[in-house]
Amino acid sequence: MSDEEKKAIVLQYYEEFDNGNFDKIQDMLAPNFVAHIPGKSEPLNRETFKEFGLMFRSAFPDLRHSFEDIIVDEDKVVTRGSFAGTHQGKLQGFPATNKRVTVSFIHVDRIENGKIAAHWGEADLMGMLRQLGAVPVPMPLVWQGLKIGAIVFTILCIIGFLIYRY
Questions:
Q1: The model's pTM
Q2: What SS3 class is residue 152?
Q3: Phi, psi (5° rounding) for residue 148?
Q4: Residue 92: left if φ>0, alpha if ψ -120 to 50, beta else—which one?
Q5: pLDDT confidence tier of residue 38, bands split at 50, 70 and 90
Q6: Bridge-partner residues for 116, per DSSP?
Q7: Rounded to whole angstroms, how far apart are CA atoms 71 and 122?
Q8: How far apart are the first and last CA of the chain?
C-alpha cells in the first residue's frame, strides 16, 4: 500500500468523524483496533471508541478537523492540526456552554491491511477546558499574587524603616 493510500484512509476517517458517520468509521477500523486517548486508563476497543466518539460529537456537533502536517512513515500516519467546534452538549458531566473552541492535536494512526488498527491521540485538553471556562486562566491569579506580594513588601519596608528610625 502506498503512502498516499494510507494518508487517504486517515483523512477519510477524519472526514467521516466530522460528519458523524460512526457506522462508516467502524468499517474503517481493523477488528483488533485499539485507541489510546488522554485521560483514559485503558485503551479503547472498537465499541468503546465509538461510544467516546459519539459522546464527543454530541458535545461538539459542528466539530471540524483541519491539518497543518500529515506525515506517513511506514505503517503510521501522523496528523498535526486542530479541531474546532461549538460546545452544544454535555461533555463528561460538564454542561453545554455554547462557546466555540479551537484545540490543537497530534494524532498517530497505524494502518494494517488497509484499515486503522491503532490510534494515539494527544490534544490540548487543558486549553479546551480554559476556552470553555471550566479551568480559570492563571494570569489573574499571578497578578493577584504580585499585588499581595507588593503590599507585603511595602509593609515590611515600612516596619523596617520604623524599627531602624526608632
A1: 0.78
A2: helix
A3: -60, -45
A4: left
A5: confident
A6: 29, 111
A7: 16
A8: 87
Residues in the chain: 166
**pLDDT tens column, 73-111:** 999 999 999 999 999 999 878 899 999 999 999 999 999
User: Strands, DSSP E only, in 74-152?
Assistant: 76-86, 100-112, 115-123
In the block, cell 472526514 appears at: 15
**Alpha-carbon torsion 65, 67, 72, 76, what sign?**
negative
Cell of 157: 519596608
Q: Closest Cα partner for 8 from 108, 115, 103, 104?
A: 115
Among residues 135, 76, 142, the alpha carbon closest in space to that of 106 is found at 76
Q: Would you state the cell numbers that stand for residue 84, as one nine-digit string?
A: 474546532
Whether the Cβ atoms of residue 126 and residue 135 lie closer than 8 Å to each other: yes
pLDDT in tens, 2-30: 999 999 999 999 999 999 999 999 999 99
Label residue 108 exposed, middle or buried (CB < 10 Å: 0-12, 13-18, 19+): middle
Please give the Cα distance from 57 to 86 (Å, whole number): 10
